[in-house]
Design goal:
This protein is an alpha/beta fold and about 210 residues long. Helices cover about 35% and strands about 35% of the residues. Helix 2 (about 90-105) packs across helix 3 (about 180-205). The N and C termini lie far apart (about 90 Å). About 30% of the residues are buried.
């Protein structure tokens, strides 16, 4: 009986060691591979009126939900790549949507398009849209860092009036909500970029 109990304890010990080894080799228990998130507008700007076109290149429009865009990587503590961070939308679409929601909340009638209108309209042509969302997955925690770069040409009455560019970064470390962390830092980086851009846009179109 004593020997049987000893064998059971030994087997449990071996199983625990094996499980710990698997977790250690995998770099972490969980991480978010998909970064899609619902954007929440944050800028306080109000008073915009009229139509406003927000343009992205046609080749940045996702035509199928099955298409996945790589916007970052997941690495372990030894800086070895574990996986890609993907999105069902391109960086241009993500930024176009976020900017559109902010401007709509400011009072504009926003029209997202893939071609700049020829008529004398008010237009924001998104010429540079970059999102880099990387995660460092370690044994006890995960760190997510997101950088957003947004460049635009602003047109008024058919004329180019300003070229603008904004950059923002968000970084967080967590041990619990690891599967939500990527979406959180993506939204925070987008909001930080919009807090810079929307007041400038409003000023340009208010004069």
């Amino acid at each position: 009986m004593k020997k049987l109990l000893e064998n059971r304890y030994y087997l449990r010990f071996v199983m625990l060691i094996t499980l710990a080894g698997i977790l250690l080799l995998s770099g972490c228990a969980r991480y978010a591979r998909n970064s899609d998130t619902l954007y929440e507008p944050s800028t306080p700007v109000r008073g915009g009126t009229g139509d406003l076109y927000v343009v992205i290149p046609e080749n940045q429009q996702t035509l199928s939900p099955d298409i996945k865009r790589v916007i970052g990587t997941v690495s372990d503590g030894a800086n070895v790549k574990l996986d890609d961070v993907v999105s069902s939308r391109s960086a241009a679409e993500i930024i176009q949507t976020a900017l559109g929601l902010e401007l709509k909340r400011s009072g504009y009638t926003v029209k997202p398009v893939t071609k700049r209108p020829e008529a004398e309209q008010r237009v924001i042509d998104l010429t540079k849209t970059e999102i880099k969302l990387d995660q460092l997955s370690e044994f006890t925690s995960i760190k997510a860092t997101c950088q957003v770069v947004m460049g635009m040409d602003v047109y008024k009455a058919g004329q180019l009036v300003k070229r603008l560019q904004y950059e923002a970064t968000s970084s967080k470390t967590d041990i619990k909500d690891r599967d939500m962390l990527a979406g959180i830092v993506l939204q925070e980086a987008l909001q930080a970029a919009m807090l810079q851009a929307v007041p400038d846009i409003y000023t340009l179109f208010s004069h």
